[in-house]
Amino acid sequence: MSPLKKPKRVKKNVYEAELARLQAELVTMQQWVKASGARVVVIFEGRDAAGKGSAIKRITEYLNPRVARIVALPMPTDRQRGQWYFQRYIEHLPSTGEIVLMDRSWYNRAGVERVMGYCTSDEYRRFLHQAPLFERMLVEDGILVVKYWFSVSDLEQERRFRSRLNDPMRRWKLSETDVLSITKWSDYSKAKDEMFVHTDIAEAPWWVIESEDKRASRLNVISHLLSLIPYEKTDPPRVHIPPRPPDSDYERPPREENHQVPDHAATLSKPKD
């Protein structure tokens, strides 16, 4: 394998300035979704460590969690395995005035389940037939369905895996299935290509995000998402802050009577100038 080379990144100051601008636009878009009653579902798929989670984090950072919800489902239960495949996803779809961001979705069947043998060939073929029908039904009912595929090279994926392995803050992101994806790179590529052939439909096309540079991919996906939603600036009702009334006869009980959290911050050394 050739040496791992760190991809060129968008400069930090440029990235932070544009991210702040785009996040402000996301807040404006969210307000329009809530006011108009629109329904939006955004699907994030791609290789393990391709940057889906970090992109979702930046999108939702300043949004109202009651309007913009993240859905990241665990493995199905025994009961859910006996249901129609799409059934457990339906309850998480947006209602009026909501945005749902899916960190992986029903496309698990066309990816990891297909490659790892977690579904039968009949279940897989049935999914490829039903997924476009299912999504057309959602669109016909007025839901905006946006599908993103985060693309990353094998070298960059391995770099990110190794970085996580040595980082106690991110080690939890690694699983045996994730690591096995290194040995099944071609299988995942073939599965993705066949998935695109069957499910890249006009009503809900796949949009590919190049994710060698995570900063660039985050800016690109936010900018593109904003371009797909026909939002208008909708100012929220202006809130009037009343004057504080005069002090009453209330007297707070002594602090010593409460269970106070120890002042850990006070024990820290003074930072250097």
Descriptive overview:
The chain has 10 helices and 5 strands; from the N terminus they run αβαβααβααβαααβα. The chain is an alpha/beta fold. The longest helix is centred in the N-terminal third of the chain and has 25 residues, at about 10-35. The protein is globular and about 75 Å long.
The gist of it:
The protein is of the alpha/beta class and 273 residues long.
List keywords for this structure.
273 residues, alpha/beta, five-stranded parallel sheet, 10 helices, 43% helix, globular
Instruction: Report the principal-axis shape.
Output: globular
Strand content: 5-15%
Gyration radius over CA: 23 Å
Helix proportion: 40-55%
**Secondary structure category:** alpha/beta
| Number of E-type strands | 5
Oligomer: single chain
Task: Give the end-to-end Cα distance, rounded to a whole number of Å.
Answer: 45 Å
Q: What does the largest sheet look like?
A: 5 strands, parallel
Order of helices and strands: HEHEHHEHHEHHHEH
Nearest-integer average pLDDT: 92
Arrangement of strands in the largest sheet: 2-3-1-4-5
Stretches where pLDDT is under 50 for at least 5 consecutive residues are: none
Number of helices: 10
Topology (elements, then pairings):
Blueprint: H1 12-36, E1 39-46, H2 52-60, E2 68-71, H3 78-81, H4 87-90, E3 98-103, H5 112-116, H6 121-140, E4 143-151, H7 154-165, H8 176-183, H9 185-199, E5 206-210, H10 214-228
Parallel strand pairs: 1-3, 1-4, 2-3, 4-5
